[in-house]
Design brief:
Four copies of one chain form a homotetramer. Helices cover 40% and strands 14% of the residues of chain A. Chain A is α+β, with helices and mostly antiparallel strands and 230 residues long. The mean pLDDT of chain A is 94.
Chain lengths: 230, 230, 230, 230
């Protein structure tokens, strides 16, 4: 079972690398098998070139304990675990340092919904977390990174806002599967780039109206969607 | 007859994708056969890879009713129809979310004619529509998108201003044929990029003079043009 | 004789296209044979793909009259001629609409000498012309474009400032040969990009000192140069 | 002995060129063999295409005198020598004019530590030197360039801050080997780009906290590092 998941997570990691969002070894994709209680994630610091399913590491979803011992899992493992535990609809998580989304995270600004491109995928602004406190950094830093993401998602459907920016750090994105999570990370970067260019042209751009946001989001998502083939 | 048009529209869609202006499945090209009263447009949400003329859908120009039933036409179909009905000289329409033109649309600013590159293709600023009202969004949204484009073109020759920006959305471009429309969409993106970079260097750049605008536009267009080979 | 020059000018045009500076058919390179009194330039509006020496057109340096009649020379021919006539040390001229240099031209700003990269190739700011008057645009527009370039070069050695920006239009670059002119056009675009990014970081950047400008320029140019192999 | 070093330095120069950081012939990599008292550096003004170990030049670390006479060493040789002499832990030095790092150097601004991407490689801001005085430019310019870099490193471990910007000039980077130095030059450019984009979104971005800086830097560096495989 976890072999199939390892293949899917490896494929998603390679798709992420091919998208140009990954610089150096910065970035990782995970997936979850909830029935088995297992999360699979890229090993820490492994290069993308020559990557195979062997470089994916399984850990227990409840305790975080590795089920594989040949390689250490990504150092961001506790952040991924925190998201899966709190968000049952999520099947894949991605972390990147893609340049435009990271620039917004470094600016500590949510990405406003400035256009319908944004509204096609995100039902509102892409939130930015608060900064972690010194205590949160010193102890359980990676798990606390997950916690501040969950704070900004409070009361939202995570699949209607499938990404968040960690202040001073970079983006996390997610979706129903590892492949969808990678797709959302790619879209996030395009939206972050378009929004940055918009601020170049008009320093304080206004978000689109609630009506336009709803129109576009629900054209693509939910029971009444009309976009695409049936 | 509509087979030839489907080939031309498919070719134009593929040229659009090859130009790098299309992200994900955002973008579509249509063409018209006015004698037959038929518009052909890309099917909704179809990937560009492996696209053939079979993925093009014919609809009636007057009623918008599909003449093909194997695939749903692009969700932007009513916008394209509105443009063809009001602009008899137009033979092809393109919609993209190309990043720089979309950034201007998100900033809700017309692209001023800042240089002769612009004047070679557009006889004045590239207009930006007003925002749609809540009522216009709720009912016949896509047709109303066409209507606000027509508002900003009022009194202009559409082939002298072969594109417009929809506020908070993105660009539509057009031309005498689907191929020309794609060419104009590509040029628009270059002009949008150059204009954005100009605002980086000089925050409030002045447009070129009327004389320079006319000189360059009419060097390339109209009965007295001198550019190119005869 | 003019066949060799046509080959050189064609090669330089193709190098320009390969550099990525040319969008659509915007751009042209010329060369001169002063002994023969002949200038060779790209034909007007000819695509770069499939371009051969046959697409180059010879004109008389003194009168501007075509020596070839199979194709019309570039519409910018009178600008090139004006530069060759006034600047005897120039053997090649390039015109592009490369995006960053054009953005400075649209902003109507000289590119200041902000760093040693600039000083390695330009011994001072890259000047920007004044705007042409309505009368200068209406009559002999292209020759007047050459004239305003020569105005901003007054008193300078053209090979120490091998490019200028035409306000509201774009860059012209030159050099001892068509190949050198293309090289300078490519460097100009890099310098324009670096200078634009500098203004993003520090809105009013100061130029480097005269001493640093001289040091770098004369390390590479003139009798005392030390850069490169002998 | 110096043949092996020449191979390593040549390989690092080619890696630098392949990274896209080098424009024209701007850029050079050196390496050192401290036991032999020899530095090897790229020859001056040599193109990257067709470059082999034969194009690397050995000079004495103490006097700077060439041990090879077939080619002149890079004109930046005295800067490299100054760094090796003062920084015993450094085994490779790189100089580039990469666009974003050069833009910061031209803006005469240190690159602040705006995010964890930065903190993963640099334990604090990437410093920018003061401008050289006219006297420092006139006499021993290249050695004085090394001296102002050493000034801004004073009291720091050079491997915790493996790059600096020379005001009005561009970046120098270093590492334990020529290969590491190139890696740091590549990372520097990414950080410079992200920081520039951050200032586009938030004109005066705040650096990350000391706790976050330490957390990320020491996750990757030093005896307690946890990142990567053992």
């Amino acid at each position: 079972m976890s072999d199939t998941l390892k293949e899917a997570v490896c494929t998603a990691n390679l798709k992420l690398a091919a998208s140009g969002l990954v610089i150096d070894t910065w970035g990782n994709v995970s997936g979850v098998d909830r029935a088995a209680g297992v999360m699979v994630i890229k090993a820490s610091g492994v290069p993308y070139e020559g990557m195979t399913a062997e470089h994916m590491v399984a850990v227990r979803l409840d305790t975080g304990k590795p089920l594989d011992t040949h390689l250490k899992p990504s150092s961001d493992t506790p952040t991924h675990l925190a998201l899966y535990r709190a968000l049952p609809q999520v099947g894949g998580v991605v972390h990147t340092h893609s340049v435009y989304a990271t620039a917004w995270a470094q600016a500590r600004r949510a990405i406003p919904a400035l256009g319908t491109t944004h509204a096609d995928y995100f039902h509102g602004p892409i939130p930015c977390t608060r900064e972690l406190t010194a205590a949160e950094i010193r102890t359980d830093y990676e798990a606390n990174t997950g916690a501040v993401i969950l704070e900004v998602l409070a009361g939202r459907d995570a699949l209607e806002v499938p990404a968040a920016l960690v202040a001073g750090h970079g983006p996390f994105a997610w979706g129903g599967s590892p492949d969808e999570a990678v797709h959302n990370a790619i879209l996030l970067e395009h939206l972050a780039r378009m929004a940055a260019l918009t601020t170049l042209i008009a320093p304080k751009p206004r978000p689109i109206t609630r009506e336009l946001l709803d129109k576009h989001f629900f054209r693509k998502h939910g029971p009444g969607h009309t976009y695409g083939q049936d």
